[in-house]
Design goal:
- The chain has helices at 2-27, 31-44, 49-61, 65-77, 84-100, 115-124, 128-132, 136-155, 168-193, and strands at residues 110-112, 197-201.
- Helix 1 packs parallel to helix 3 (49-61), helix 6 (115-124) runs antiparallel to helix 9 (168-193) and helix 8 packs antiparallel against helix 9.
- By secondary structure, it is mainly α.
- Mean pLDDT is 83; it is low at 197-207.
- The chain is 70% helix and 4% strand.
- The protein has nine helices and two strands.
- It has two domains: 2-107, Tetratricopeptide repeat domain (Serine Threonine Protein Phosphatase 5, Tetratricopeptide repeat), CATH 1.25.40.10; 112-199, no CATH class.
- The protein is elongated, with a radius of gyration of 27 Å.
Length: 207
């Protein structure tokens, strides 16, 4: 039994060493050697998803798109659905399929924004949701106004310190700040509902 365990540990160490070498060769653009290391890993562990994904990267870079698609698909199928490896292989598999059809991922429509996430971003700071949805002008204006109002409320004679004098100026500034906050929330929600674009593109499976 100890011999079996030692043999398994040696095999695992060999796999890790070969993977490290494969990554180094890939970084050096020595793709032939990198592919050789990946195949050696797969001889030791035919279900190694990491080696299959890396092999797919190499095959795609060397113009063997059909082989890359198969490698990405195998890497995806061998990975737990909740793992980063699954998501990575799935994304590359989808992109390779699109490339095979002559479609670039950059040509795909952007994924619509989530109204709930837009509201959450607006709660953090007015204008943040608009900025994240690539409406940079509106987002920048709202954030600038909100920042100025916060500074006035915190440090100016018309802000918190004005409360001791009756608070009229403070209430005025606070009401403007609240209005900006509400306007930002409503606008972010409506923009997201209209399908305002998020920064991340679709995976490609929505086509």
């Amino acid at each position: 039994m100890p011999d079996v365990r030692n043999e398994e540990e040696l095999r695992r160490e060999q796999v890790e060493r070969l993977l490290r070498e494969a990554y180094v060769y890939q970084m050096r653009n020595e793709l032939l050697h990198a592919e050789e290391r990946c195949r050696q890993v797969l001889e030791l562990d035919a279900h190694n998803a990491e080696a299959l994904e890396l092999l797919g990267d190499i095959q795609e870079r060397t113009g063997r798109l059909e082989e890359a698609i198969q490698s990405f698909r195998q890497a995806r199928d061998l990975s737990p659905v909740e793992s980063p490896r699954y998501a990575s292989a799935e994304r590359k598999y989808a992109a390779a399929l699109l490339k095979q059809r002559g479609i670039s991922a950059a040509d795909l429509p952007e994924e619509p924004a989530s109204p709930l996430l837009a509201i959450a971003a607006s709660i953090v700071f007015p204008g943040l949701a608009q900025w994240l949805m690539n409406d940079r002008v509106k987002g920048g204006v709202l954030m600038g106004i909100a920042l100025v109002l916060l500074l006035l409320i915190a440090f100016s004679p018309w802000g918190v310190r004005n409360i001791e004098e009756g608070g009229g100026a403070f209430l005025f500034l606070a009401s403007i700040a609240a209005s900006v906050y509400v306007v930002s929330l409503i606008d972010a929600y409506q923009t997201a509902r209209r399908g305002g674009p998020r920064r991340k593109p679709k995976s490609g499976w929505e086509v």
